[in-house]
Amino acid sequence: MAAPAPWTPRLPLWVRVFAWLGGQWAFRSERRAARLLQGFACTEEQSQLELRQAARDCPDERRRARYLRHALDETRHAHAFSEHARGLARAAGAAGFAPPSAGCERLYERLGELRFLAFVHVGEQRGRAEFETYARLLRKRGAGATAQLFEDLIADERQHEAYTAQLLNELAGADGARRAVRWVRRWQAWREFRRRGRRLARTLYNVTMLFVYVTLAPFALTLRLFGKPQRGFSREF
Amino acid sequence: MAAILGISGLYHDAAAALVIDGQVVAAIQEERLSRIKNDPSLPRLAVAACLRQGGIRAEDLSAVLFYESPYRKLERVLHWLLQAYPASARHFSKALSAQLGEKLWVLDQVAELVGVPRARVRPTSHHLSHAASAFLVSPYQDAAILTVDGVGEDVTTALYRGTGTRIEPLLSLPYPHSLGLLYAAITAYLGFEVNEGEHKVMGLAALGQPRYRQEFERLIQLHADGSFELAARYFSYEAGGELGFSPALEQLLGPRRTPGTPWALETSEADRRYADVAATLQSVTEDALLELARRAKRETGADALCLAGGVALNAVANRRLLREAGFAHVFVQPAAGDAGGALGAALLGAVEAGDGRPPPLAHVALGEPIKVDEARALAHHLGLSAEQLTDPAASVCELLLQGGIVGVCNGAFEWGPRALGQRSLLALPGSLATRERLNRVIKQREPFRPFAPAVLRERAAEFFSDAPNDLTPFMTSVCDVRPLHRQALAGVTHADGTARVQTVNATAQGLLPAVLSGLERATGVPIALNTSLNGPGEPIVAHATDALAFLSAHAIDGLVIEDYLFRRRS
């Protein structure tokens, strides 16, 4: 009897809808397109850092190698996005970008391997859908070079999606994989909620600090009038 | 008897260093392990690695010293936010959020991170940490110590006198008058990343002429007493400008360079202008450092000078200090930037605990060792070939003599920004084609950036003037390549005829001395091109995973890890 086909999660419809709407807005100008691509470069850079951590910490050599290969792909993608973004920015006469940089959330360590894999899988699936949408949209707009960039990366995204689905099923079976993906989707929604909350808190904080700043005017004036200019050597430490 | 952990972080170049019974047991930059270039976080992984290297647990630590005082730093930030009022409006909330939200509580965070009671964690001072990191591992018992960087708590430049284990403060220069911040602002102006592109500016300077001295006199005034003053209107530190310079700088020097634009020094008038700006910056920096060093000599009368702080990584300036400042000896601790503060803090703690000074720094292999078994297991799954070698040095020589570029990993990885043979890419020093291949294909760097030579110490003077000296084992100075040998060393000779030489003891441990001896036997020239084993924008390789990732992604001719040769299958 043939082994059952591995379970793969379905892609929510809203991913393509949002990608289409976002693409319509971003690809209207080269500057915005450049910023979007630089954003992708940073996302790929973060992804490679997370995968490098997984490659370092995973106890199984075969899976370590897969994470490492995946990390190398992400590095290549980050480079390709960044180069293309710079080209678009130059063409638009905009300031260039620094090389992509990102932090590492230590997701492998925090989530454990199964949920980490589910997280990567969901991300790859969404990435592939977005890239396909953008490529179609850009072809229609006649932006062949940028469309080609996305098309070149889609094959990698498919492959990443496939291997992560396979590993998920291998590690946890179909039921376990389904549960992990559900958990990750809930977790991502909660994370997004918190992110928006932080953004709101930051706005409130900035407004509050503006008031504080205004009240500091007399102190600033006093410092200007009576503060000693700091220059030359001092024997004080 | 004490086990002291030193920590730097929360700005850039986070690091940890462990000193047990007065001996430096481990010193590790976080970026090597996190793989985030110039990682600014607290050094979580580096702390764990240091404890592993020392074979101790957190509870065995007598003290944990953070390399600077968060309270004094907050005071400076508040002072300058008010000083720059109302231009600091945009920067105010962000600056306060960084200080009050994170940096002010760093000692608590460190206690939690390391897993020790808060009472065991204490701060030291930024420039004192730098001073200790240079002097206490130097070969001198009596020296002037000069620390020059962007800014510590509220000081940018400091002079100390070191005697035995005592470090006596003499002079300080307050913020914002800072050579580091000047260099950083011009680095940004030239389109490079701050805290990363400064060495590119130094390399670029050799291709320009210092034509902008007059303009720079408006940026920085050098005084006869060795101090200097920056003209605030050209900079934007207090106003929170992300680039560190104000529009006035562009009015003075012309429009800034767009980051990421390819360099065309031969054909682009604008790029030649940028090279001239870099050359002027370099020349002004050298003059300023020279005056500081002369003041240090006058103040202390010492024969030796120890340097630390980010500006001390300026290898070209260090050569001038060695030649012209009047000191018989100059030493720069190889991790002279903020990472070095972790080492300095740990050494200060050890001295305080009565453990005395460690022996002079003989090597920088203070990281974690590479595991060849791990590499072999992983290589199999990555489709790389692995071959055991009977004589690794001979095999490396053979590949090099065939014109190959070979990665080498042996022992513990290096402390500091230079690859000194533990995690290096090696090639023959004579070929411009190899240099091109390395620059364009493998490292994907700007075409003007030079490569360094590693040479057997015993024969260094034959090829390079001023070598060997106390700086050359750590690649912290440049030397003139003797004209007779410039053609034979074309791959490692920079446009100005210099090279950032690393001298290697033939009797030292590790692969590099044996490779250089092998090259000497085969060609008569005991020199190899030695550059760091890392891809563009990446930290230098630390572990087997990183090394094999590098091999998988780059077209080099082989990677030797201890006694195994790894290659990509064709």
Could you characterize what this model shows?
The complex is a heterodimer of chains A (237) and B (570). In chain A, helix 1 crosses helix 5, helix 2 (30-57) runs antiparallel to helix 3 and helix 5 crosses helix 6 (144-215). Chain A has a single domain (13-181), classed as Ferritin, CATH 1.20.1260.10. The relative contact order of chain A is 0.11. The model of chain A has no long low-confidence stretch (mean pLDDT 93). The longest helix of chain A has 72 residues, at 144-215. By secondary structure, chain A is mostly helical. Chain A is built from 7 helices and no strands. In chain B, strand 1 (3-8) and strand 2 form a beta hairpin. In chain B, the strands form 5 sheets. Chain B has an 8-stranded mixed β-sheet, sandwiched between helices. In chain B, strands 3-2-1-4-5 form a 5-stranded mixed β-sheet, sandwiched between helices. Chain B starts with a strand and ends with a strand. Chain B is globular and about 65 Å long. Chain B has 570 residues and is of the alpha/beta class. Chain B has 3 domains: 3-130 and 341-352, ATPase, nucleotide binding domain (Nucleotidyltransferase, domain 5, 2-Layer Sandwich); 179-332, ATPase, nucleotide binding domain (Nucleotidyltransferase, domain 5, 2-Layer Sandwich); 372-568, Alpha-Beta Complex (DHBP synthase). Chains A and B meet through helix 2, helix 3, helix 6 and helix 7 of A and helix 3, helix 4, strand 8, helix 14 and helix 19 of B.
